[in-house]
Write a structure and sequence with these properties.
With 191 residues, this protein is mainly beta. The chain is built from no helices and 21 strands.
Amino acid sequence: LGSIDANTTASAIDLAATGNVTLNASQGRIYRTGTGVTNVTAASTSINAPLGVDLGGNVSGADIDVTWTTGDYQLTTLTATNVTLNVTNGGIVDTNGSAVNITAGSVTLNAADGIGSSKPIDTAISTLTATTGGTGHLQINNTGNLTVTSVQNTGTGNIVLTNSGNLTVNSATTAGGTFAANATGALVTGG
């Protein structure tokens, strides 16, 4: 129920399963007191830590579902068929430089205050649904053909989509900011 120290060492720890991995600190956080990273590989991974998550490593599997309620999600690398990130009191922040953050088929991102607000989230995905609010921006930099089911910023921030490949945007709405979409291939907006 409390917090989980995911790595107390300077070495990498690999959690691997042919089934599901659930990391649940329902009243705390998942963190590292050591300098090593924790990698998770499973058919599906569910992470719940309302006070934050810091694994430092890669999370991969068929389905990844991450939810917590306090602070920003420090996004390193997620690889899956389907990825869902829900951040109810913060933003989704890119913490791995220019490397790809999410490789997946279908991705759903929900954050209270920004998705890639100061640096775009780097993706290699096929389908995106994303919603944010507050003062943060929603910025995605994707490689490969992308269909955006819906992107929405209910706050004052902008939406910026950049795609290397074809880009189809079915729905994009902003409350107080602007919307911009750029693609190296065909660009279709308005679904």
